[in-house]
């Protein structure tokens, strides 16, 4: 066999492993999406009507309060935006620093940091909502930056607008091409949106019974994703 052929074969095998890694599997994305929905309803309903994930909403409310000279309220919405930005940066640095380590995936490091931060949030009293929102937004940003594909399709586990657009785009493409792979792609997006909504609904019910400790359910969901990622990909 020619060296170029061997190199090409190795490249194909590497890509197959990459595409099948558990950090990009649907089951991992499912737990992350339920957790994402729960985090968003938690901060909005329990921590002063701030969005943990949807920073567009926070920017709109920040701008409104700035133009009305409500400085304290503006700060209330600026904090999660700032910490969301920092979370993206930290997740990127973790990937750059640990992407080649063995025994544990760099995304598992991200999840463990998330779990620790969200566990701490469950102890933060309501008079320190700004601190709680900062930590949840930081956590959400790390997650959305680190987990960006499900079975090879780009997606977001902590927000829905991109998933809705991609899902409808795939559905319209299927109507034209009747390609079953395109229909499967649409299913992935709509399933993720459904799971996100399940997380939000579950969080709204749990808030009535366990209050600010509801965020610990998100820790359990994240730990499930962390554990799943130890499953080895099928060898080729």
Keywords:
mainly alpha; globular; 236 residues; two-stranded antiparallel ribbon; 75% helix; disordered N terminus; 9 helices; 2 strands
Low-pLDDT stretches? 1-19
Structural class label = mainly alpha
| Distance between the amino and carboxyl termini | 19 Å
Count of strand segments: 2
- Count of all domains: 1
Radius of gyration: 20 Å
**Helix content range:** over 70%
Taken as a percent bin, the fraction of beta residues is: under 5%
Quaternary arrangement of the chains shown? Answer: single chain
Element pattern in H and E: HHHHHHEEHHH
What characteristic shape results from the CA principal axes?
globular
Q: What spatial order of strands do you see in the largest sheet? A: 1-2
What profile does the largest beta sheet have?
2 strands, antiparallel
Number of helices: 9
- Rounded mean pLDDT is 86
Structure description:
The chain has 236 residues and is mainly α. It has one domain (27-228). 75% of the residues lie in helices and 2% in strands. The chain has 9 helices and 2 strands, in the order ααααααββααα. It has helices at 3-20, 26-46, 55-67, 71-98, 106-121, 129-146, 161-177, 180-210, 215-228; strands spanning 149-150, 153-154. It has a two-stranded antiparallel sheet with strand order 1-2. Strand 1 (149-150) and strand 2 form a beta hairpin. The chain is globular and about 55 Å long. Residues 1-19 have low confidence and may be disordered.
């Amino acid at each position: 066999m020619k060296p170029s052929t061997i190199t090409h074969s190795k490249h194909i095998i590497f890509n197959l492993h990459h595409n099948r890694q558990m950090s990009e599997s649907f089951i991992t994305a499912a737990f992350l999406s339920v957790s994402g929905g729960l985090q968003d309803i938690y901060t909005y309903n329990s921590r002063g009507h701030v969005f943990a994930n949807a920073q567009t909403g926070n920017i709109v409310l920040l701008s409104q309060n700035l133009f009305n000279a409500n400085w304290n309220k503006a700060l209330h919405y600026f904090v999660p935006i700032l910490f969301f930005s920092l979370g993206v940066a930290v997740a990127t640095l973790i990937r750059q620093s640990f992407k080649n380590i063995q025994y544990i995936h760099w995304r598992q490091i991200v999840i463990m940091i998330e779990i620790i931060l969200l566990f701490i949030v469950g102890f933060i009293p309501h008079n320190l909502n700004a601190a709680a929102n900062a930590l949840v937004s930081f956590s959400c940003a790390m997650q959305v930056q680190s987990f960006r594909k499900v079975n090879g399709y780009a997606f977001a586990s902590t927000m829905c607008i991109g998933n809705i657009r991609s899902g409808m785009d795939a559905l319209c493409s299927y109507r034209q091409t009747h390609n079953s792979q395109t229909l499967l792609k649409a299913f992935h997006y709509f399933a993720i949106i459904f799971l996100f909504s399940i997380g939000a609904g579950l969080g709204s019910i749990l808030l009535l019974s366990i209050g600010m400790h509801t965020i610990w359910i998100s820790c359990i969901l994240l730990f499930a994703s962390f554990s799943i990622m130890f499953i080895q990909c099928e060898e080729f």
